[in-house]
Amino acid sequence: MSRTSWMSVGRTLTPRQTSLLTVLSFLTPLILWSVVSYVPWIWHPQVLIDDAGGSTAMAVGNRVERSRFVEENAALAVAGKPLASGTPVNPVFLPAPDAVAKALYNAFTTPPRRGDMWLHQSLWHSIKIIAWGFAIAACIGVPLGIACGVWAFSSRLVEPFVDFLRYMPPPTFGALALAVLGINDEPKVAIIVIGILFNMILVVANTTRLVDRGLIEAAQTLGAGNRKLVTRVVIPAILPNLYNDLRIFLGVGWTYLTIAEMIGASSGISQFINQQGKYRNYDNVFSGIIVIGLVGLVTDQVLAFIGRFLFPWTGKTNGPGAIAVWRILTFVPATLFRLVGRSFRRSQP
Amino acid sequence: MSATLAPLPFSTPSLTPEEIANRFVRLRQRPVAMEVQNLGKRFQTPQSASGKGGEAVALNNVNFQVYRREIMTVIGPSGCGKSTLVRILAGLEQASSGRVLVDGKPVDGPGPDRGMVFQAYTLFPWLTVLKNVMFGLSMQGIGHDEARSQALQWIEMVGLERFAENYPHQLSGGMKQRVAIARALAAKPRILLMDEPFGALDPQTRAQMQSYLLQIWQNVNITIVFITHDLDEAVLLADRVCVLGAADESHPGGHLKTIMDVHLPYPHDVDVLKDPRFLEIRRQLDELVHPRRPLALDRLPIVKMTQRGDEVG
Prior knowledge:
Number of strands of chain B: 10
Oligomer: heterodimer
Strand content of chain B: 15-25%
Distance between the termini of chain A: 73 Å
Shape of chain A: elongated
Largest sheet of chain A: 3 strands, antiparallel
Order of helices and strands of chain B: HEEEHEEEHHHEHEHEEH
CATH class of the domain at 17-44 and 54-113 and 189-298 in chain B: Alpha Beta
Number of helices of chain B: 8
């Protein structure tokens, strides 16, 4: 295959190339990690002592720096004592992939120490925190953002102050959140809300402002008044972009999670990770980190996949399948909307 | 509103000039559908680095009347304010002076009595063709079933019944513009404003759309104001052509030059393009729109950059 077909500027790749690269993008770090873990002469700065020999400074099971091990053995050789032996290893904070895989498996199968939570319990707790934080932020941020995008009045009234607020790092509100909301989950949710909300208002406002003016003008010449312009033109017009915005903010929620969970009584997946770090079970630490990544990635991909079917008019999904999915998804709300509208019209003289 | 269009009767080239002239007498006896009075539009130009912002005149004291069921085309060189004019007529922009009357009532903002077809289609991408055409009807509070059956008739009239359930992105440019026309007409406006609606179409589709428009116009009670920069289109479609001029020594901004009656056999159809009278009217219009300039002004100051002997002619 010629070089240009992989590297030409501004061209899209074939589906085959795309999936190959996607696999590679995950495979490359995994291969690097395996190489560093399993090839003994790459890195491996420490030696795990199998037999201390005549040394009094080293004991079996110790990890010593390789240079110290060499010096110690040299000293032992001079003294004529038996040499120590050991295997080159990486520091304890870099477990090998198989150790992490085992830990991941064990975390779901073997009961944790007394008083600790299962990994899935921690994870579920974290997901609940994020879900609440995201839901609250979206309930406030989306309507406010749309209002700012539609009316210059609300934009000028809200956006300058929000712009000021969003530069304050959410963790700085931690102490305040604890004082106001107690030490349980409420301040954690509050940190997620603060982390998402202010940016969400500005992003949604901008998305709203990008609505094609021509569509609004066309609707006006067809007799749409102010309220109808918002409900029948602006909101449907921004839906696909709004959906993507919210998808991104769900991801932002995960980035504030770890900080949020450290506030007050620490909890959730980050408490699991910290606890395992204290026990120096770094394989568990890695499995916790990987689980967060996986949950985030899977959620995002699932939402992206659903998004392709939600908005058949964007032309990104063709075919009757997408439209059928759309009809099924919107059947209940559309019917309700129609019935309410009809009875409303009947009730008017 | 009628069902599918019958083919046009052939225009009657045998009409005498008197008969054609009489038609314009009758046209002027019709009620005035839209009246433009002393219309002016000034823009604040943005502040420049050197000093404070100034004022640009887009339109200067424009007066004309549009009679019921005529097609008036508006033509002029770029910068004469024809788009500004139609946007003011639609109520999408405010006039700085003067006023626009529709059926004697002054225009204040956009409204369903003046439908508009834009060059950029402006179909709602999230609605099917059918729902797009139903939009204006449901804005007027017409119930779903009634709106649907009316919309279907309009869609049938523009020949797109097979595409009623399609989304706009699945249609070609010409089809989109037919939907846009059906959508505007379905709301039953008094006047249809068209802002270079066929400007983005290829020449063949454009000719087809002109023919469609003439057929629709004959079958629907509608008055049309049609903005274009294409001379053929202006003459072919119009009962009367409104010629705007750009700013010059005697006028600070876009202004009305003249309104020209198109003395051609009627109803017009595409055959008229070959009529010598058509060519004569087109020539007159060309002189009005593009006044002759000394040839020297159009000469580019180009130095010869090819080799000697490599002449192209």
